[in-house]
Amino acid sequence: MIELLAGPWGPVLIFLLRVGDVSLGTLRVRLVTRGSRVIAPLVSFVEILIWVLAAGAALQNLSSPLHVVGYAAGFAGGTALGVWLEEKLALGLSTVQAICRDGGDAVASGLRDLGVGVTAVRGEGREGSVDIVSTVIRRRDVPEIIDEIERIDPDVFITVYDDTHIRRGWIPTGRRK
Q1: Per-residue DSSP letters for 113-137?
Q2: Using CB atoms within 10 A of its CB, is residue 70 exposed (0-12), middle (13-18) or buried (19+)?
Q3: What distances in angstroms separate CA 70 from CA 1, 15, 76, 81, one per listed residue?
Q4: Structure pTM?
Q5: CA 6/CA 163 separation, integer angstroms
Q6: What angle, 0 to 180 degrees and rounded to 10, lies between the N-to-C axes of helices 10-33 and 65-89?
Q7: Alpha-helical runs (H) found in the chain
Q8: What pLDDT score was predicted for residue 176?
């Protein structure tokens, strides 16, 4: 394997190895922040195996600018791919909070019609009374929920929080209506 990485295809192979290990590293960090005690260590094991091969080959070929550039470019490409993959996987849950000057009841009703749990409370903002509408949903559903909230109340203020630990409550587990 080392001979292959030292040859003319070495820079390309080092690039691909780095894309793989950095992508896995990005996913591993996300899994760790979500409290994954089983999958995160397995991902880290594979990540480091790949890294040892790529780093070893790059270090043995420091006199070759192409090998070094392949290593650095693989890091950049892996970062981009890892972020993209993490967004597509959208692991975990998020809290979407909508602060409405008008239309809080309509937003809460519209979200409930989609089959999600909603908590609505009255609050006081800088310019008077507001309705605060919160829901905890799967991360992959956040864009759809935001679109629905903005469709009902175009002037809404929305924040999204990634949740790491949740206990009890009403969270949809399957496809919504």
Answers
A1: HTT---EEEEEEETTEEEEEEEEEE
A2: buried
A3: 17, 5, 10, 16
A4: 0.69
A5: 45
A6: 30
A7: 2-6, 10-33, 39-60, 65-89, 104-113, 142-152
A8: 47
Amino acid at site 54: A
8 Å CB contact between 43 and 28: yes
Region of 115 (left: φ > 0; alpha: ψ -120 to 50; beta: rest) is: left
| pLDDT for residue 68 | 92
Q: pLDDT per residue over 148-170, tens digit each?
A: 999 999 999 999 998 766 666 66
* CB-count exposure of residue 51 (10 Å: 0-12, 13-18, 19+): middle
Q: Which of the residues in the chain have pLDDT under 50?
A: 175-177
Chain centroid to Cα 54, Å, comes to 26
DSSP H helical segments within 34-64, as ranges? 39-60
The single-letter code of the amino acid at 112 is R
Name the residue with tokens 């800088």. 126
Going by their DSSP bridges, the two strands 157-163 and 93-100 should be labelled as antiparallel
Q: What is the DSSP letter of 8?
A: T
Neighbours of 37 (CB within 10 A): 8
**CA distance readout (Å), 143 to 16, 58, 150:** 32, 41, 11
Q: Residue 98: its pLDDT value, please?
A: 96
Asked if 51 and 21 count as a contact pair (C-beta separation under 8 A), the reply is yes
